[in-house]
Specification:
heterodimer; A: mainly alpha; B: alpha+beta; Alpha-Beta Plaits
């Protein structure tokens, strides 16, 4: 196994410690009760659901790379092809883990949807899609790896192509948009109950996925001290990200506009919370996306350093949006006369979330070392002739 | 630089993973297996509750004009249904509110709450209104619709029931309920053995519960415990299918409303506001039995 130096071993060690810490607390939650989390009867959904929707979004968004390679024939994206599939699979695993760690009796979830099912529930629909999406991702991974290993079989190439193309509408329309519907169908909560939520979820998934792919390309290049993709590819990804951020901001704006304009008491209460107690996250959501968009409009904004900053900012903005969406809607009292409702994630809850992230990182690291991660790329005229940015000097 | 071959790396990772998983959770896994078999056993139907009475459709009327806010219903419900102290607020919540004229001729409505509505009151006052809330056993219950496992279901007698053997504790129903009527067992239930009602199952931590309209009593022909203990007879429980029942007559009262009617949930609890001017008559509530509450089977 390559690169198992001291830094790598320390990194794996830290991940294992975080995983152990989180799983220890999960064990406590199973033995004593989920009261060790910050949840309560007014805010039953907390960090677990925030993580759940975030990772489903990241998983769905990662399919954009396959689409670029196979549908739009952007061959220069190929070095990211297998990585994007592996990232998508790992994100999906993290999403499902969030759900499993969050529910009170996790072992019973294995009976869903085979034995226990209620077909009117959005949750039964979304949980069924994980099996299909997981299967689709695995098949895509199988054929893409065969192609990466140099298979010239027509079936392998066609399957890799069509599975990648199918994955995008499936991920956005069948997998992630229904997660928006999971919230949108809840008529009890004014902030959730909007038909805009499913498309909003789909777009924020694309923002998350693209931002993660940019980060992955840059970080892998930095770690491996080589250029994984060309400057042109990074520039193109930056442009894509700016498009998705623009659409996402459009949805963000109209969400708030409708709440303000309709003046429904619960909507106004949500807005007061967003601009009051939750103002830092609200600013991070709007401000983060807006600043990212402004930076991306400039040519210098699509250079590796700026893109690293922008991707981190966009991902943070989407996390803030997910948190606000899940928590604020529940903090609005459903009946007058309830005391002021609060929700603060506890240390054990944060440790459980951290362990899921660490487990995802560990799995990605292992898979990236076990699987052939790169397809052969046809030499682009830009690579090696224009700018070198990956720490490699021009000879 | 030292190198680690792939097999060794995977072996080490697997050992580390097992080390994390095994010690803490071995006990919990035993309990979880029981829950799994319980779920499989309950596929034929909910074994924890008596069967519904044919031809009966239950409902409740709460006369806010008669409710004096004493919270007897809340405490009696808690003891009757083995609700642990860790569940807070309990299944029934009583709100204190102002007596101002609201919309549609009602003095107060939940859609237009008056200032000063609270559940944290400490004194009972004649110039205030009191409104107890609990599960409304809606005909078009959002909680039933969203439950992924079918643990929450609407039975033929109008009760919204939770099959505790099927609930996975995802809490989707709690977010979907517009009345905040559902409670999650955040902690392991600890009720002293001498205070346990043997007719009501103790709920495992990690599952959701709520008012059952005292299913263990009402399906055996008894009123709910909250109705039984109300000192001013503010609550009426009965069969809506019987046109001669008191409840059937009361629901046609001019001044009645249901909570959040615009959501089309069709609640089975009606609120009256007509009797505020009636003289207060304290009736003697039935004393709670010393050891076992509920119905002797």
């Amino acid at each position: 196994m390559k690169n198992t130096g001291r830094t790598f071993r320390v990194f794996i060690g830290v991940l294992l410690v975080i995983i152990m810490w989180g799983f220890y607390n999960w064990g406590l939650a199973l033995a004593k009760g989920h009261g060790i989390t910050g949840g309560n009867d007014f805010v039953p959904w907390g960090l677990d659901i925030v993580g759940f929707v975030f990772f489903v979004g990241a998983s769905a968004g990662a399919t954009i790379i396959g689409l670029m390679i196979h549908a739009f024939e952007h061959e220069h994206y190929k070095p990211l092809g297998v990585r994007a599939i592996v990232f998508g699979l790992v994100s999906l695993m993290c999403a499902v883990l969030n759900l499993i760690m969050g529910v009170g009796l996790p072992l019973r979830t294995v009976l869903i949807p085979w034995v226990l099912r209620n077909m009117t529930s959005m949750l039964i629909y979304t949980s069924s899609t994980y099996f299909i999406f997981g299967g689709l991702f695995l098949s895509e991974l199988y054929f893409t790896i065969r192609v990466a290993r140099g298979s010239t079989s027509k079936i392998d190439n066609r399957m890799a192509k069509w599975l990648a193309i199918i994955a995008v509408p499936f991920a956005v329309g069948v997998l992630h948009a229904p997660h928006g519907a999971l919230f949108a169908v809840v008529k009890a909560r004014e902030y959730w109950h909007t038909p805009l939520l499913p498309p909003h979820f789909a777009v924020s998934a694309l923002v998350t996925g693209t931002a993660f792919m940019i980060l992955m390309a840059i970080l892998t290049s930095r770690i491996d001290k080589r250029e994984l993709v060309s400057m042109e590819t990074l520039d193109h990804m930056g442009r894509l990200l700016s498009l998705f951020i623009t659409i996402n901001l459009f949805f963000d704006f109209y969400d708030i506009f409708v709440l303000k304009y309709s003046e429904e008491p619960e909507g106004i209460e949500s807005l007061n919370l967003l601009t009051g107690r939750f103002a830092p996250l609200f600013i991070l959501n709007f401000g983060g996306l807006f600043i990212s968009l402004i930076i991306l409009l400039f040519k210098w904004g699509r250079t590796p350093k700026a893109l690293t900053f922008v991707s981190c900012l966009a991902i943070s903005a989407i996390i803030a949006y997910r948190y606000d969406l899940v928590v604020v809607a529940q903090i609005v009292p459903l009946l007058p006369g309830f005391p002021e409702i609060h929700y603060y994630p506890t240390i054990p809850e944060i440790s459980m979330e951290a362990s899921i992230v660490a487990l995802g990182l560990l799995f990605y690291t292992i898979l990236s070392r076990v699987l052939p991660m790169e397809e052969a790329v046809p030499k682009s005229p830009e690579v090696g002739t224009i700018k070198r940015w990956g720490g490699v000097k021009i000879e | 630089m030292k190198t680690l071959d792939r097999r060794k790396f995977i072996k080490l990772s697997a050992m580390a993973g097992a080390g994390v998983l095994i010690p803490r959770q071995i006990g919990a896994v035993g309990g979880m297996l029981e829950q799994l078999t319980g779920a499989l056993k309950s596929l034929g139907g909910n074994k924890d509750v008596p069967p519904p009475i044919p031809g009966v459709k239950f409902g409740m009327v709460i006369d806010m004009g008669l409710c004096i806010g004493c919270r007897r219903c809340m405490y009696a419900c808690k003891r009757e249904n083995n609700v642990p102290d860790t569940i807070s607020p309990p299944w029934i919540i009583v709100f204190e509110t102002e007596s101002k004229i609201g919309i549609e001729g009602h003095y107060v409505t939940p859609e237009r709450p008056s200032e000063g509505t609270t559940m944290m009151y400490t004194k009972l006052r004649r110039d205030k209104w009191y409104m107890p809330t609990q599960c409304n056993h809606c005909d078009n219950a959002p909680c039933v619709k969203v439950c992924p496992t079918g643990a929450s279901y609407k039975d033929v007698d109008g009760l919204v029931v939770i099959d505790y053997n099927k609930c996975i504790g995802c809490r989707y129903c709690m977010t979907a309920c517009p009345y905040n009527a559902r409670r999650f067992n955040w902690w392991k239930s600890e009720i002293p053995p001498d205070r346990i009602n043997p007719l009501v199952p103790i709920r495992h931590h990690g599952i959701v519960e709520k008012c059952t309209f005292c299913i263990h009593r009402t399906r055996r022909g008894k009123p709910t415990r909250c109705v039984e203990v109300c000192p001013n007879r503010a609550r009426v429980f009965g069969n809506l299918n019987d046109p001669d029942s008191e409840i059937s007559k009361l629901i046609f009262s001019e001044r009645n409303f249901r909570l959040k009617e615009r959501l089309n949930t069709e609640p089975r609890i009606w609120y009256l506001t007509r009797s505020k001017d009636k003289p207060m008559v304290w009736t003697t509530p039935l004393p709670p039995p010393e050891r076992v509450r509920g119905v002797k089977s």
